[in-house]
Amino acid sequence: MLQDRYEGREVADRLAEHRVHSQFEEVDRTLIEASAFFFLATADDETVDCSFKGGHPGFVRVTGPSTLEWPDYDGNRMYRSLGNISRSARVGLLFLSFTGHLYDGYAARLRINGRAMVDETPEVIANLPGAKRLIRVEVDHIFPNCPRYIPTMEMTAGSEYAPREGVAVPDAPWKNRPIFKDIFDRERDGAD
Q: What is the domain extent for residue 91?
């Protein structure tokens, strides 16, 4: 194993014993619910995918000691993440804080591994503006780890495309490119 080969066994064992947990701590919840984005890793037997997931802070919610969820918004319709989840529920989430407000004044990196499920029940997504479905993750491991290489940055503005109550979201510019325009024109006209 590489931990033995590169003299990392003691550190790895100590981190596993003292930092890895399976229920959210308050600092984990704070980081997650203040995040305007995270990265989602999914895989099946043929492909691995890492996707950016964004929204307004609070779009990801911790809903139980070892459960979190977020709305799935309109995307590029390739369904790489959802397709992988339909074949293998195993997911990895990576949350980053660039501001240095958490974890003793340092930037923060929080890894979460678990099992995802997709909920398309109309009553579940009815109160989630812009949601096409809800993704729920049952957490196996939560691991806040070394933020050493994370730069300090401030977010200057959220995305105008992130859905929110009472605000019309503009079409993504790519939907008007010639190779896609006819598809979305038909949808806007109600033909599909």
A: 20-161
